[in-house]
Amino acid sequence: NNDDEDIETFLIKFNMEAQEKNWTDQQKIYKLPNVLNGYAFKQYESNIYQRGYTWNRIEQILKSLFKKDLFTCKKLLAERKYKGMTDFERLVTDVSYLKKKVDPKVTEDKIAKAILKKMPLSLQEWILKDREIHNTTDLREAFEKYKKIEMCLMKDKQTDIETLQAEVNKLREKLEEKS
After folding, report:
1. Buried b (16+ CB within 10 A) or exposed e, 78-105
2. 95-109, 129-143, 153-167: range with lowest mean pLDDT
3. What pLDDT, in 10s, does the model give residues 146-179?
4. Cα distances (angstroms) measured from residue 116 to each of 74, 108, 128, 169
5. From residue 15, how far is each of 4, 12, 45 by CA, in Å?
6. C-alpha to C-alpha distance for 119 and 88, rounded to whole angstroms
7. Other Cβ atoms within 10 Å of 139 Cβ, number
8. Rounded distance, CA 171 to CA 174, Å?
9. What global pTM score does this model have?
10. How many Å apart are CA 113 and CA 19, to the nearest integer?
11. Between the CA atoms of 18, 21, 26 and 28, what dihedral angle is there, to the nearest 10 degrees?
């Protein structure tokens, strides 16, 4: 089967082909593993293979397995949060994968917007003020620019802190000299 195809569509097409070729339920059961691949085949192997189920029961099991998978992906997507600058690439990977699992026809634009929504509002505003985001490449470029600016600001703050510490030390020395 096509990895992007949902279970309902797959079963409808499979049953239509079976009807066209006059397959019995037993023939459907025999031919099913030959048209599954990847994750779907692994689920078949783990939950259905050589269990003696009827065709109707196999359809129920498949629907149940893949509906649960969809629910899990939606739940993970809702729970996924931005955890800071070092988490950005992982966030892009996770949200992209989960959005595609939930909706195989999802556009790059919607994936990028979903990732952006996971970020703090101030970061979202900064990125959107800088440019329009049409895909994850745009988002990555904007984030890299933000990261560089943040790093420069951090260096400036560090320099300011070091300068202040040096001035405090000089003042302490002067105070110690007077005492």
Report:
1. eebebeeeeebeebbebbbebbebbbee
2. 153-167
3. 888 887 767 766 676 777 787 888 888 888 888 7
4. 17, 12, 9, 44
5. 18, 5, 20
6. 9
7. 23
8. 5
9. 0.53
10. 43
11. -30
